[in-house]
Amino acid sequence: MQGDDPISGDSAGWGGLPPGEAPFVLSMAPSSAIPVLISVPHAGRVYPPALLEQMRLPTDTALRLEDRLVDRLGEAVAARTGASLLIARAPRAMIDLNRSERDIDWEMLGLPAKGRDLPNGRARSGLGLVPRRLPGTGEIWRGGLSMAEVQRRIAAVHAPYHQTLSDALELLRERWGAALLIDLHSMPSLPRIAGQGAAELVLGDRFGATCHGALVASAFAHFAAEGRMAAHNRPYAGGYVLDRHAAPRRGVHAFQLEIDRAAYLDSALIGLGDGFGAMVEMLVALVNRMGADVALLAGRRAGEGWAEAAE
């Protein structure tokens, strides 16, 4: 397990894959205890030395790109609930797993965009498949990037991550009749709303396209009961992970959950803070509730034990 240093480098680089390192880790029991999979695509902090050398401001950029230590929330919740867990260890600076393989900034590669897939708004703003720039920081990289390098990162990290996620969801769906993907992220603190305060959580379901409404309603009922202010789809509705893997008509539901970093990190937003334990408790109860709701959607009887329900 990586430490809490702002950035951590492996000794061998990521040429292919370094010994002892993997771009992501899946934790999934052969007989799943609950039909929920938590994915964490943006918390990776294994930085190959060659990548760090290419970055203009590696420490500042890494901290701003990462969903800082949100994987620790995922680990704690999975350990308590039996949910399956997929955590990216490759950093977002290397390749963004919540972007399509087509979200390429061709200018960054020194290639003409004519005749190619046009980048979407995120890629044009600098946050495409390989992030290029950050507001207030400017260009991330000292130089350009080759198409061959982008293709290598897709083959080594992006493609196997999404294949693993797809396979794991299918195993859950086959076992339970339905599955829920919770794509876990963190966000900067949102502006306060007059008379209400600021939302600590944002649940995104692509405006109703990726998750059954009953699951979304149940999640918001839980947030309300816990006294946690939550928003729906704004400003984060979900991204490529949901677009690619959600299939509600087949029983594969998905939502993105953004958590205010200030709610579980310290005041410097670098290490875990006093709110971490309470956030874990809230998420444990949420995941257990979602697991029961998904089982009911799949036709399980309320109150039936997980093991018996799977028979």
User: What is the overall pLDDT average?
Assistant: 88
Main beta-sheet annotation: 7 strands, mixed
Q: What proportion of the residues is helical, as a percent range?
A: 25-40%
CATH class: Alpha Beta
Indicate the CATH architecture. Answer: 3-Layer(aba) Sandwich
Structural class: alpha/beta
Strand content: 5-15%
Beta strand count = 9
The value of Rg in angstroms is 19 Å
Low-confidence segments, given as residue ranges, are 8-17, 301-311
Any idea what the CATH superfamily is called?
A: Zn-dependent exopeptidases
Number of helices: 9
Q: Can you list the strand order of the major beta sheet? A: 1-3-2-6-9-7-8
User: What characteristic shape results from the CA principal axes?
Assistant: globular
Overall tally of structural domains: 1
Order of helices and strands: EEHHHEHEEHEEHEHEHH
Question: What would you say this structure looks like, in words?
Answer:
By secondary structure, the protein is α/β, with parallel strands linked by helices. The relative contact order is 0.15. It has a single domain, classed as Aminopeptidase (3-Layer(aba) Sandwich). It is built from 9 helices and 9 strands. Helix content is 34%, strand content 14%. The strands form 2 sheets. Strands 1-3-2-6-9-7-8 form a 7-stranded mixed beta sheet, with helices on both faces. A two-stranded antiparallel sheet has the order 4-5.
Task: Write out key terms for the chains shown.
311 residues; alpha/beta; Aminopeptidase; seven-stranded mixed sheet; two-stranded antiparallel sheet; 9 helices; 9 strands; 34% helix; globular; disordered C terminus
